[in-house]
Write a structure and sequence with these properties.
14 strands; five-stranded parallel β-sheet; Rossmann fold; D-amino Acid Aminotransferase, Chain A, domain 1; 597 residues; alpha/beta; 41% helix; 3 domains; five-stranded antiparallel β-sheet
Length: 597
């Protein structure tokens, strides 16, 4: 927040203020509209809100306010090469009343400032001339300048008197600026304020009239009881909700998919009153705030529900916004409800790999009591602070609601689990199985993750039937190493134990090299946060071993190199080479499938 002239005088003295006002100055009008920033980050134009938070997928779905700006600014930039260390700030004026003050004929995009960053921090703000040059280059309006030069004594005194509330007549700031400089930028009867800039210093004068206008808008707010009731009902719904198997290219789209699934289930459990005025479910908004942007919603059931009435859109927006951030007790939301709701906030963001820092004023202090004496859990606690610390906070919350599970039926025969990828199964993986067997002296359960839920893309995947055939041949041909094989829907620890028990009790789980941390987090969550739902053995461990032949096995299929395939895979897999080649040819289009009417 910029200091006003009177604040500068109080903090740094009248002499400092006099020196500031005696320099060459540029005075611009503050426009009551939306401000966004953009910059070139590794060749991609990225957009940010005025508080420097990214305008990500979720922000764009919550409101279509940013869509035109994002699309049109990229077009305006065109082939212009933006320096990678420059940040561009601009006003966006979507219509004649963006927020509170109505405007006539303002440009849609007004470039206000250009800055330079080093190590993520602004180190330099460029002068008016350079900003004007960039505005011309980007086909945007110039900064809203109403004066450039040195102030006269009369102008200084008039501005200082207004800022210090020493005026006795009825002139408002817009009239004063018009009298002093012959114009305002917007030509409106009320302006938000002005910004005064020298080469390296900034100050502002805020408009008292605008403050009164803003206060009137703020008072025109509605009860949030209906909003709170939705959140309370959400807590009730989430008690019975299980996150489905979902995949996506990034955490934001995965988060959106989860919210769509929650919304669909919620609407089937709770009947929404379509006659309810949506204003009771929406936060106060002034002027043009945009509407729900359905452009990025792909769930057909969600889209059908959203078409029913505005109430459905409002409830969806509540869910989309609420599960991103931790809540504080307020209104109908008492501390116990908030703690429970924040648990679900954490679970959803953890699932979508979008971890958020916790605020001690929102969540109770971490309790160091442990639910499990497992060696993996113990090792995790000794590490440096990570997302595990957030889980420990959630664990302390869950202890209020759940007791430790004590009736979990364990398996009768000890085993090891090797959960790995198959494309194809290689000699290196077979050697990994032998290491597990030798080190822990237990038979190995061979596990594959189904490909049927994975999104089709650039990477070739074997069919589930072919993977199962591989596993059956491997187990049948190596009864001394393998106890069994199974295919599960995802890298899910609970599912693994459910399949193994009651016949087998896992003592170790070995994964591919990029999965150990994920499985460790799941173990911590299940044993500490959820009260021991798996109830693993004390010595149960998690590790990872690299599949050194993985690339060679995949390349032998891509290149159609049968001899190399035989070199890098066990004999039990050799018979499936032709089948794998056929699936690969179908996948990359070498073999056209016949379309039947």
């Amino acid at each position: 927040m910029l200091n006003t002239l009177s604040q500068i005088s109080e903090k740094k003295g009248q002499q400092y203020l006099d020196n500031f006002l005696s320099q060459e100055l540029i005075i611009t009008e503050k426009i009551d509209t939306y401000r966004i920033l953009f910059e070139n980050i590794e060749g991609t134009i990225r957009f940010f809100k005025k508080d420097n938070t990214p305008i990500n997928l979720i922000e764009r779905v919550l409101s279509d306010l940013y869509e035109d700006a994002i699309d049109e600014i990229i077009i305006l930039i065109g082939e212009t090469k933006l320096p990678k260390d420059h940040v561009f700030g601009l006003y966006v004026v979507p219509n004649d009343r963006p927020i509170r003050i109505p405007y006539n004929n303002l440009p849609k995009y007004i470039l206000t400032d250009v800055s330079r960053k080093e190590d993520g921090k602004i180190v330099e703000s460029f002068g008016y001339d350079e900003v004007k040059d960039w505005a011309s280059l980007l086909c945007m309006a110039r900064p809203p300048v109403i004066f450039e030069g040195k102030l006269s004594d009369l102008q200084k005194n008039e501005l200082l008197s207004y800022d210090r509330k020493e005026y006795t007549d009825r002139n408002n700031l817009s009239e004063i600026i018009t009298n002093l400089f012959e114009r305002t930028y917007s030509k409106q009867d009320i302006i938000e304020g002005i910004i005064i800039q020298s080469k390296d210093k900034l100050a502002q004068i805020t408009s008292y009239e605008f403050g009164i206008l803003d206060e009137a808008y703020q008072k025109n707010s509605t009860s949030r009881d209906f909003y709170d009731i939705i959140l309370i009902n959400l807590c009730s719904f989430m008690d019975k909700y299980n996150i489905p198997i979902l995949e996506s290219d990034n955490s934001d789209s995965l988060y959106l998919a989860i919210i769509c699934d929650i919304f669909n289930g919620y609407c089937s459990m709770f009947k929404l009153d379509e006659s309810l005025d949506p204003q009771y479910l929406n936060p106060p908004s002034f002027g043009h705030f945009g509407v729900l942007n359905k452009r990025f919603i792909e769930n057909k059931e969600t889209l059908e529900l959203l078409e029913k009435s505005q109430v459905y859109e409002s409830v969806f927006k509540i869910m989309l916004a609420s599960f991103r951030k931790y809540k504080k007790p307020y209104g109908l939301l008492d501390e116990s409800i908030v703690q429970k709701f924040n648990t679900y906030v954490y679970l959803i963001n953890n699932y979508s790999n979008k971890f958020m820092s916790l605020n001690e004023s929102v969540i109770p202090k971490i309790m160091d009591e442990s639910r499990s004496d497992n060696i993996v859990i113990d090792a995790v606690k000794k590490r440096q602070p990570t997302d595990i610390d957030n889980m420990r906070v959630i664990a302390s919350i869950q202890k209020t609601f759940q007791a430790k599970f004590s009736d979990v039926t364990k398996g009768t025969q000890k085993c090891g689990i090797y959960i790995t990828s198959f494309c194809p199964f290689t000699n290196s993986q077979m050697e990994n199985v032998r290491q597990i067997n030798n080190m822990w002296k237990v038979p190995v359960v061979l596990v594959a993750v189904s490909n049927k839920y994975k999104i089709d893309g650039d990477r070739f995947k074997l069919s589930d039937d072919l993977i199962k055939a591989e596993m059956k041949s491997l187990v049948d041909g190596n009864r001394d190493l393998f106890a069994a094989f199974l295919m599960i829907d995802s890298w899910n620890l609970v599912e693994l134990f459910e399949y193994c028990r009651p016949d087998y009790e896992p003592m170790v789980l070995i994964t591919d090299t990029d999965k150990k941390s994920e499985m460790t987090l799941q173990l911590y969550f299940e044993e500490e946060v959820m009260g021991g739902r798996i109830n693993v053995e004390k010595d149960f461990n998690i590790g990872e071993i690299e599949n050194k032949d993985r690339l060679g096995g995949m390349r032998s299929i891509e290149d159609g190199n049968a001899s190399h395939f035989m070199e890098v895979t066990p004999k039990m897999v050799h018979n499936y080479y032709d089948n794998m080649m056929n699936e690969y040819k179908n996948w990359n289009g070498r073999v056209l499938n016949i379309i039947k009417n």
